[in-house]
Design a protein that fits this description.
The structure is a single chain. With 207 residues, this protein is of the alpha+beta class. It has a 6-stranded mixed beta barrel. The longest helix is centred in the C-terminal third of the chain and has 20 residues. Keywords: Ribonucleoprotein, Ribosomal protein, RNA-binding, rRNA-binding. Part of the 50S ribosomal subunit; part of the 5S rRNA/L5/L18/L25 subcomplex. Contacts the 5S rRNA. Binds to the 5S rRNA independently of L5 and L18. InterPro entries: Rbsml_bL25/Gln-tRNA_synth_N, Ribosomal_bL25/Gln-tRNA_synth, Ribosomal_bL25_b-dom, Ribosomal_bL25_C, Ribosomal_bL25_long, Ribosomal_L25_dom, Ribosomal_uL5_bac-type. One of its GO terms (molecular function) is structural constituent of ribosome.
Length: 207
């Protein structure tokens, strides 16, 4: 479902105009794509925009630009390297009947067989899908899966209308035994090692 947002056209470009917009509580943005004749430089309302994009990397927005409607896909967010606040946003104008390529987060539910662990090979799944059908996440249920089970891209259960662009044989997830950690030396062995080192140092000092 698309979110609703209003934007203002920004006639000025450059770092100075962007800084002024941010001081006013707005987020500089650019809108581009085959459904617009030329790139549009915009100012987005800061708080409302943050609420839409904070948990949705593929947000779809019904954008009102001075009374003109656009269906847009969130493409990129530039953040401050320290404060992490939003500095700039790229928006892609799309149409309802086209397919877009996005990456959808992958999550795991359920518990595999006792003593095994889940190895997720793909954290974001590349897919092709209609803009209005982009899922928030792809959920994989591993309840009861045994050690040695491998899930490949061709075996994924995807929502209707969603197609992954991964090769069919690409590993997405596997169930394995946990890696064994090397055992720490026993206390006595550690003490013997320290004593040997001290003895060696003493002999070298006497030579």
């Amino acid at each position: 479902m698309a979110s609703e947002l209003s934007a203002q056209l920004r006639n000025e470009t450059g770092k100075g105009a962007a800084r002024r917009a941010r001081r006013a509580g707005q987020i500089p943005a650019v809108l581009y794509g085959h459904t617009v004749e030329e790139n549009l430089h915009l100012n987005l309302p800061g708080h409302e925009t943050f609420l839409i994009v904070k948990d949705n990397p593929n947000a779809i927005i019904n954008l009102d630009v001075d009374g003109e409607k656009h269906l847009v896909l969130l493409k990129e967010i530039q953040r401050h390297p320290v404060r992490r606040d939003i500095l700039h946003i790229d928006l892609l104008a799309v149409s309802r009947d086209e397919k877009v390529e996005v990456e959808v987060p992958v999550s795991v539910t359920g518990e595999p067989a006792p003593g095994t662990v889940v190895n997720l090979e793909i954290f974001d799944l590349p897919v092709q899908v209609s803009p209005l059908e982009i899922p928030e996440e792809i959920v994989i249920n591993v309840e009861g899966w045994e050690e040695g089970r491998v899930l490949r891209a061709s075996e994924l259960e995807l929502p209707a209308g969603v197609v992954t662009t991964l090769d069919d044989e690409h590993d997405v997830l596997s169930i394995t035994l946990p890696e064994e950690m090397p055992e720490e030396p026993a206390a006595e062995e550690a003490e013997e090692g320290e004593e040997a080192a001290e003895e060696e140092a003493k002999e070298e000092s006497e030579e």
